[in-house]
Design a protein that fits this description.
four-stranded antiparallel β-sheet; about 325 residues; alpha+beta; five-stranded antiparallel β-sheet; 11 helices; 12 strands
Length: about 325
């Protein structure tokens, strides 16, 4: 049903955008198959009014025009619904290309590829290849869990869900009623942050521990959704990322902006390198490996050894 509605909305939008004169309800009904299949005039009118409101909520500017005979018509002028020119510099284009490559293992790969093609047509710099490799290590986000897609849609639509969850210390799964806030990929694992209705508190769930199907509930959220930064901090804390000490690293100038954002101090070393003091907690070695040759661990020795071990494992394939 969701696909049928999306197709109906698309057809209505195309009709309104493709006409040079206002189209009456009768003409729109004759032009769209789904409207022809409506059982009665009342059914069609309700469907049309909902669709028109949905398109307006999505940002389409629909004008209502009354002709000399008093008949009401509708159209969406192209000049009122045209986006401004898209201008991207090389760094912005590279970031979009990298994001598309990150999702190439997920079901969003087709949408990401199509979006980049449209950006290329809209003015993406010709000297920038969005798919060009930017380091020896190619980032990917693995999405193997069946729960990912229904939870992603539930987060988007703000729909509470129910699923069976097995804690690491439990022998059997138990049902959880959750208001999903956001999905976060942390050190190669997907986590769901949300409000656990049964426990009356925020919780974080690792998707690999969700068993069975994710089921939607016909209720509304009862607590406000925190901002994305707060959600990420929550996931980091629950995933064991709380830092209890500091590490000293060398970072290539102009690289590693996420590391710079977390740094307690940054000192220029010259010759294209900076020295950073960053929080050191569980999982930092895996994160540093993602930056490849742009990072050199100075201390502590145990962190340097862990990073070297991971790099050797990557080199061996």
């Amino acid at each position: 049903m969701a696909i049928a509605k999306a197709e109906r909305l698309m057809n209505l939008a195309l009709c309104l955008l493709g006409t040079r004169r206002p189209l009456s309800k009768r003409e729109l009904r004759e032009s769209i198959e789904a409207y022809l299949e409506a059982g009665s005039d009342d059914s069609f009118n309700r469907m049309f009014e909902r669709d028109k409101d949905d398109l307006r909520e999505l940002g389409l500017v629909i004008e209502t025009v009354e002709n000399l005979d008093g008949e009401v018509g509708y159209l969406a002028r192209r000049d009122s619904n045209r986006l401004p020119p898209i201008t991207l510099d090389a760094e912005e284009a590279a970031a979009l290309g990298l994001a598309a490559k990150v999702w190439q293992q997920a079901r969003l790969a087709g949408a990401a590829s199509g979006a980049l093609q449209k950006l290329r047509a809209a003015g993406l710099p010709e000297d920038v290849d969005p798919y060009e490799a930017h380091s020896a290590l190619e980032p990917r986000i693995p999405v193997h869990e069946a729960a990912f897609e229904p939870l992603m849609l539930a987060c988007r639509d703000r729909r509470p869900v129910v699923f069976d969850y097995r804690k690491a210390s439990a022998a059997h799964p138990e049902p959880r009623h959750v208001e999903p806030w956001a999905l976060e990929c942390w050190r190669g694992h997907w986590y769901l942050a949300g409000f656990d209705s049964d426990r009356g508190a925020e919780r974080v769930f690792r998707l690999s521990r969700i068993t069975g199907k994710v089921r939607s509930r016909g209720t509304r959220f009862t607590v406000p959704v925190p901002d994305v930064v707060t959600v990420r901090e929550t996931v980091a804390s629950w995933a064991g990322e709380t830092a209890d000490r500091s590490a000293l690293i060398r970072l290539r100038t102009g690289a590693g902006y996420p590391l710079r954002a977390r740094a307690a101090s940054v000192r220029e070393l010259g010759d294209g390198w900076d020295e950073l003091e960053i929080p050191y907690g569980h999982g930092l070695d895996a994160w540093l490996v993602e930056f490849g040759p742009d990072v050199v661990v100075l201390e502590p020795a145990e962190l340097r050894a862990d990073v070297l071990d991971r790099l050797r494992a990557v080199a061996k394939g």
